[in-house]
Each structure stands twice: as C-alpha cells, then as structure tokens.
Amino acid sequence: MSLETPALLRDLDATDQRMRALVLDLEERDLEVPYEEGINPPIWEMGHAAFFYEGFLLRELGDPTPRMPGFDDVWDSFRNAHERRWGDDAVPDRQATLDYYARILDEVRERLAKPDVGEREAYLCRYGIGHQNMHLESMIWCRQTLGYPAPPGAVAAPQSNDPATVPGDVEIAAGRYPIGMPPEGFSFDNEKPGFLCDIQPFRISRTLVSNAEYLEFVESGAYASPQLWGLRGRRWLRETEAQHPLYWRRGENGEWQCRHFDQWIELPPSAPALHVNYWEARAYAEWAGRRLPTEYEWEAAARGPQGRLFPWGDTMASGCADMDGTALGLLPVTALANVAAASGCIQMIGTAWEWTSSPFLPYDGFCVDMYPFMSTLQFGDHVTTKGGSCATSSCLIRSSYRQAYLPGRRDAFTGFRTCAR
Ligand SMILES: [Fe+2]
Asked: Are 70 and 188 part of one and the same domain?
C-alpha cells in the first residue's frame, strides 16, 4: 500500500460526503438552475467530477471502456460548452447521475484498497480529489449566486458588532523567500518549479480589509470617483454602474445589509469585505494611499523565510482557518490570531481568496501537467489570488497554491489586504 493511500482514502471519503450532501439537500426544482455565466448546474458538477476520475485514472490505468456510454460529451467540460449544460435533457437526472458517480467512486476506492498502489496511481488519484474539491467550492458559490440556503455543515459564526480594530501592519524583512513547490511530490503545475525570491522590505496589513473599512470607502463616494479606478477599472464601473459590493444593499431604514446565501443580514462590520473584484480592491487601496501585495510578497508574508506550507506550520490542522464551508466568511477579521503566520498576518489561509497585484503567469521552467487546462487557459488575462477562501477545502489548499480569476469577477469568495506604499 502506498504510504499516501490512507490519506487519499480519507480525503476521498470526506470529499464524496460533502458533494453528495450538496446535491441531496436541494429540492428537485432547485436543481433546475437558471443560466448564469459563473456557475454550473450542480448535477453537471457531480457527473463531471466523476468523469474526471474515469478519464484520467480508471481508463488511463485500467479498463478503457466508458462507464456511462454516450455521455463523454456531456461530462467533459471541453467537449460540452458551458451554455449547453442547461435545459431539459442537457444532463441525466439526479438519480442516474448519483448512480454513475457512486459507481466511479467505488471503483476509485477499490483501486486504492489494493496493496500495490503505485506512485502514478496515487498521483492521479490526488489530482482527481483536488479537482473534485475545486468543484465543491464552485458549488458553494453557486448557492451564494442563486440565493440558495447555505451548504450543509455551515455553522453560525460568532459575530461581533464592534468594528474590527485596525491592528495595523507587520514588517516583512528583506531576504530570500521560498516561492512555489519543488518539482517532485504533488502540487499543481502552476506552483512549479519553486524558487527563491529576493524580497525587498515591505509592510502588509495583519488582517483582511473588513466590511467596516470597506464601508468607509463606499460612503466616501469612491464609486463615483473615477480617478481611483484606473482605465480598465473605470470601464468596469461604467459598464456595471456598480455602487457597492455585489451582495450589499440598504435596508428600509437606510442600514447596510449583505446577502449571505438566502438571508439578508445586517452588514457585519468586523467580518471581511467579500465578493469584491480586483478593480474594487485596487481602487480601495488607491483611496487608502496603499497598494495590493504582489503574489511573491503575499507568499513571503504567509510562509516566512522557512517556507512553511501553512501559516501555523507544515501540516494542515483543524480549527486553524475558516474553510470547508463552515463559518463562511462571517468570522471577524481579527479572529484566529492565535494561529497567525510567524509574520503576524491573520487568516492568510481560508476566509477569502486574496487579490494580489500580479497577473497570473507561469513560473520560469513551467511544464504543463497531465491535465493541460489546469492553468494554461488562465495565463495572461487573469489575476493571481492566494490563500483559499471559506469555501475552499482544507485538503486542497496550501500557501503556495495559486488561483486565478478574471479581474472583474466578484461572484467567488474574494477579498484582500493591502500594503503600505
Ligand atoms: Fe473541472
């Protein structure tokens, strides 16, 4: 048995349970999802996650026969254009998809239970689990987009009505900091090959920007101040006529509220500003006389000169971050200070994908992995975000992980922190 097999089986089971729960707790009518650019029908996500194991692991290393004949063109994201995943008969019904999904996952488990799981097999399996967890996150933001109930397993987070005290910046010393991952072992292609990066000294905020801080920016008239937004930011502002973050509104008495899944709640001042795009993050930084960190600066602040994989150490630990769809971005930005990075930065893992100022580009020596579309389609026009969000899975994330979003995107769980100029 491969040394990693028990961890793979554990992560596969946890992932399986969460995906089933996300599909099973929806009413039949809620499975008929209206078309939106940033989401997929939940049933398609489930079949597609199973198909990924089938295509890259089961057929590749074993029997090449399709397990659901005639449906490759449905489940394969590159053969089934996004807009074709909607409508009557676009995907099989829930039960047929669940049956297919269960059969595939059982086959994966059978392979992992064998005593001679090879390195390649373990790698492909880890990849499939990672891929499925990326889709778990998009299933959670799909619920936020549609105003569906919070995912099963969400817990009411302690809310504080005190505006988060601004704990200021930490100083990151000049030095050579490890960035990315070594070529050997498991990580995604865009994290490799790792390297040492010379970083100049800089100051970065301990916490994410809170709702209270962002509200000041909104109420200062920033959305009507084009000079803060830059050329492309101004174009976005003009096209959308945005006046505040996506899920904010004013209540009947003029108080600010935000939509948290199917609930409109009073804007929690000490929680992080979420669902803001790159243009909003950049304009805020401009207004505050600050700037966004580069992705290397962010990684140096999270990992330190020792290059730890997580702010608190080298292994994932429960209770150290808002992730796995539990507190869902409602913790105060000052919470979890006891497991801050050695630099003093809080909540660098989980809570919000943090915008950086860096375009998403390959590292020198980049080699495309077995799944050629993991990164290559996003190089160039996307912006790097770091750290994972409240909807990201703990078995997926690490400080070297790079996620890329288009700069105008604000349906995902994105937030930011800033640096002194
Ligand atoms: Fe996918």
From this structure: no
Q: How far is the CA of 132 from the centre of ligand 1 (A)?
A: 7
Last residue of a domain, one of 146, 178, 209: 146
In this structure, the answer to whether residues 328 and 380 fall within a common structural domain is: yes
Q: Same domain for 140 and 163?
A: no
Kindly state whether residues 191 and 317 are assigned to the same domain. yes
Nearest to 307 by CA among 129, 408, 182: 182
What is the CA(301)–ligand 1 centre distance, in A? 30
Structural domains of the chain, count: 2
Give me ligand 1 centre to Cα 46, in Å: 10
Q: Which domain holds residue 111?
A: 5-146
207 C-alpha to ligand 1 centroid (Å) = 32
Report the SS3 class of residue 305: coil
130 alpha carbon – ligand 1 mean position (Å): 10
In what helix (H) or strand (E) does residue 383 lie, and over which residues does it extend?
strand 383-386
Using alpha carbons, select from 400, 10, 346, 32 the residue that is nearest to residue 193: 400
Give the C-alpha distances (Å, rounded to integers) separating 1 from 8, 114, 385, 388: 11, 7, 36, 31
CA of 268 to the centre of ligand 1 (A): 33
List the chain pLDDT tens, one digit each, 421 residues: 456 899 999 999 999 999 999 999 999 999 999 999 999 999 999 999 999 999 999 999 999 999 999 999 999 988 899 999 988 788 999 999 999 999 999 999 999 999 889 999 999 999 999 999 999 999 999 999 999 999 998 887 666 555 555 589 999 999 999 999 998 889 999 999 999 999 999 999 999 999 999 999 999 999 999 999 999 999 999 999 999 999 999 999 999 999 999 999 999 999 999 999 999 999 999 999 999 999 999 999 999 999 999 999 999 999 999 999 999 999 999 999 999 999 999 999 999 999 999 999 999 999 998 888 889 999 999 999 999 999 999 999 999 999 999 999 999 999 999 999 9
Same domain, 210 and 328: yes
Q: Does residue 234 sit in the same domain as residue 341?
A: yes
- List the CATH number of the domain containing 126: 1.20.120
| One domain, residues 88 and 169 | no
Alpha helices for 157-229 (secondary structure H): 211-219
Are 308 and 314 contacting, i.e. CB atoms less than 8 angstroms apart?
yes
Q: Are residues 232 and 312 in the same domain?
A: yes
